[in-house]
Write a structure and sequence with these properties.
- The chain has 16 helices and 30 strands.
- By secondary structure, it is of the alpha+beta class.
- Among the domains are: about 55 residues, no CATH class; about 100 residues, Immunoglobulin-like (Sandwich); about 90 residues, Immunoglobulin-like.
- The strands form six sheets. Strands 1, 2, 3, 4, 5, 6, 7, 8 and 9 form a nine-stranded antiparallel sheet that branches. Strands 10-11-14-17-18-19-20-21 form an eight-stranded parallel beta barrel. It has a six-stranded antiparallel sheet with strand order 22-23-24-30-26-27.
- The protein starts with a helix and ends with a strand.
């Protein structure tokens, strides 16, 4: 009996393994067009797997990524210890206001091997809020440096220079709320910059954002907050994308505890919070950042031209160097553990993936993804980062800002993917810009629009968006500004019937609804764009006399009942409420009538109907639908959204038989859209 049972178990095991092999898919199974590159794909998978083994050894990725617990400044019961990796350094001295910035023998770091230096100090040697730096010497030179793992960095108001600061408050922050479970699809992201979130022409604080902006986000129906410009950056005008201190919270908006309070409060509201993390490049500054930290240009970065991102004027990481991978992976874990972030939006992934950084490449051929200009070590790092994040926090989400559409980037590892949960659908904003700029309203190609909005790789989920912060920056234009332009400044009163504004308000709603309703897993909106914020973003700089006038958000416009901004904000909230209930990725049935400028489709029992005609309204228009009764749950023509209330939102619509199936007979006013829910 024992033998029989063992044999049966073995047979079942063998059968299951064979079945797994027979049924498991890979990228070429999903996309047959990749078959000519099967060898390259396999070789890449082998390389990633081998490099992972070499880096991790016998450790798990979560046990490996703990550099922040070893390097940097730490206090224990025995006292203080500071460790730094600087393989080219000949001498390192800790200086600060605790020793009058003097180089004293007891503050000299000792070499402990492998380029690591260390100093131990008694418990009373350092105090909370004291400033410090490292004086690093190397053959032929020296310089003051901020420790690579510094968790608090502040700027001196007079000198404008930056120093590390001891952060050891008497009582540690006590978390009150756990992060929410992952939101049911779609992920509804509210992209926000804390510093410019106030109406005042100044840098807003984490506390201000917590008190005043989080309730707006919650009320608007979004389930996820994406925070920009959190990692410390010396130049405010970089929008947070030229990071100097990867483990430090930007001190312009407050303390580490203030940020923890923001995230904690968001969690209490049921909001997830993800960090816009910058691992694609680093600021070139030497005194504040990692550039020439130990006197060499290659400690963290590639040598020569490959180490320079000329378009961004920044430094490019060498992802193949074990110490760099360790640094960046530890950085991911630090933000998860210390600040309880619920995931990351990885900035500039295209730049990471290719030695040419995607500059001047159209990516029109699959061969572009498998050439010698792909940085395979970047793929290894990104794969490890996703492994780590999902191991440490299984509910965390990762989003790749990537425009080349590299196959498998947002695919699961078991099919040969890199492991991102989502990728940004970066072509959508460009599509809307091109349509608005180059085509008259009656020329809009609905077939092409729908195709572009709904097309993405089957193994991937995407975040759809009509515009992000990129389109709001000075030198570009938001959708509302492209539609209305200067009329915004004189004709946004509710009793002003300006035709340009009327068109702009109508299309603004329709564009956002179509983008959100066709999302491939998630939808993103940038702070203020939901109500058509009227001005661009321009941070203080010499060219604008260091003004904060355009680095703020005018919430009062959305709150003013005499202005039309309220309509756009109210519509966005209504739209998000509808979109939040969609989960299915299929679109059935779909109708596109280019001649009438009418588009309709169904998702998750919700029918969306758009009449983009600028001047034709239709009565009793037959729209294909699944059999059943329907009720209007959202109409761009509702008065509360600035419409004319021509669509009856109380009527129950019953499907009727037609030649090709069931239809609803609907009234479709010109330049309107509606959503009808199956009852």
């Amino acid at each position: 009996m024992y033998i029989k049972q063992s044999f049966t178990g073995l047979f079942c095991l063998l059968y299951d393994n064979i079945l797994l092999v027979l049924t498991q898919k890979n990228l070429t199974d999903i996309d047959p067009w990749l078959e000519p590159h099967a060898d390259a794909i396999e070789a890449r998978e082998v390389y990633i797997a081998s490099r992972k083994r070499a880096l991790l050894g016998a450790k798990s990725v979560q046990d490996y990524a703990i550099g922040h617990l070893y390097f940097g400044l730490h206090k224990s019961k025995q006292g203080w210890v500071l460790r730094e990796w600087a393989p080219n350094a000949t001498k390192i001295v800790l200086v600060g206001d605790f020793n009058d910035w003097q180089e004293l023998p007891e503050y000299v770091l000792k070499s402990v091997g492998d380029g690591v230096f260390e100093v131990t100090l008694p418990a009373n040697a350092l105090k909370h809020l004291q400033k410090y730096k490292l004086h690093v010497y190397w053959t032929g030179g020296e310089g003051y440096r901020i420790p690579a793992y510094a968790t608090r960095v502040i700027q001196d108001e007079q000198s404008k220079g930056f120093d590390a600061q001891v952060w050891n408050p008497p009582t540690a922050y006590v978390w009150r709320h756990r992060g929410p479970k992952p939101a049911a699809e779609p992920l509804l992201i509210y992209e926000a910059h804390v510093g410019m979130s106030s109406e005042k022409p100044a840098v807003a604080s984490y506390a201000y954002f917590t008190k005043n902006v989080l309730p707006r986000i919650k009320k608007a129906g979004y389930n996820t907050v994406q925070l920009m410009a959190i990692q410390e950056h010396p130049y405010y005008g970089s929008f947070g994308y030229h990071v100097s201190n990867f483990f430090a919270v930007s001190s312009r908006s407050g303390t580490p505890d203030d940020l923890k309070g923001l995230i904690d409060t968001a969690h209490g509201m049921g909001l997830a919070v993800i960090l816009d993390i910058i691992h694609s490049h680093a600021v070139k500054n030497e005194a504040e950042g990692l550039a020439r930290f130990d006197g060499t240009s290659t400690q963290y970065f590639h040598a020569g031209e490959r180490g320079e991102h000329k378009a961004w004027d920044s430094k490019c990481f060498d992802y193949g160097k074990p110490q760099v991978a360790h640094f960046l992976l530890s950085n991911c874990r630090y933000w998860l553990d210390e600040y309880q972030f619920d995931g990351f939006r990885f900035d500039g992934v295209t730049s990471m993936l290719y030695t040419h950084h995607g500059l001047g490449k159209a990516f029109t051929d699959y061969g572009d993804y498998y050439g010698d200009d792909v940085d395979k070590d970047a793929l290894v790092y990104l794969s490890l980062a996703n492994d780590l994040i999902h191991a440490v926090k299984p509910h965390a989400v990762t989003v790749a800002e990537e425009m080349s559409a590299m196959p498998g980037l947002a695919g699961k590892p078991d099919i040969g993917g890199i492991g991102f949960d989502y990728r940004m659908s970066m072509g959508v904003p460009d599509l809307w810009i091109k349509t608005i700029k180059e085509k008259r309203d009656e020329e809009w190609d609905l077939q092409n629009l729908f195709h572009e909005l709904t097309t993405h790789r089957t193994e991937e989920k995407v975040i759809s968006y009509a515009e992000s912060h990129d389109q709001a920056l000075v030198g570009d234009k938001t959708i509302i500004f492209r539609l209305i332009d200067k009329q915004m400044y004189e004709h946004m009163q509710v009793d002003d019937g300006d035709l340009i504004v009327e068109r702009g308000v109508a299309l603004h709603k329709m564009i956002r609804l179509l983008t959100a309703a066709t999302n491939g897993g998630g939808y993103l909106n940038f702070m203020g764009n939901e109500f058509g914020h009227p001005e661009w973003i321009d941070f203080p700089r010499e060219g604008n006399n260091w003004s904060y006038h355009y680095a703020r958000r005018q919430w009062s416009l959305a709150d003013d009942k005499k202005l039309k901004y309220q309509w756009l904000g109210a519509f966005d909230a209504g739209m998000v409420g509808i979109i939040s209930k969609l989960s299915a990725t299929d679109f059935m049935p779909v109708m596109i009538n280019q001649g009438d400028h009418v588009l309709s489709f169904m998702r998750s029992g919700c029918l969306f109907v758009f009449n983009f005609s600028p001047d034709e309204s239709y009565t009793g228009y037959g729209v294909p639908v699944a059999t059943g009764d329907y009720k209007v749950v959202l109409s761009t023509d509702s008065k509360i959204y600035g419409g004319q209330d021509r669509i009856d939102t109380e009527q129950i619509y019953r499907s009727q038989g037609a030649q090709d199936g069931q239809v609803l007979q609907l009234y479709l006013p010109a330049r309107t859209a509606m959503a009808l829910q199956a009852m």
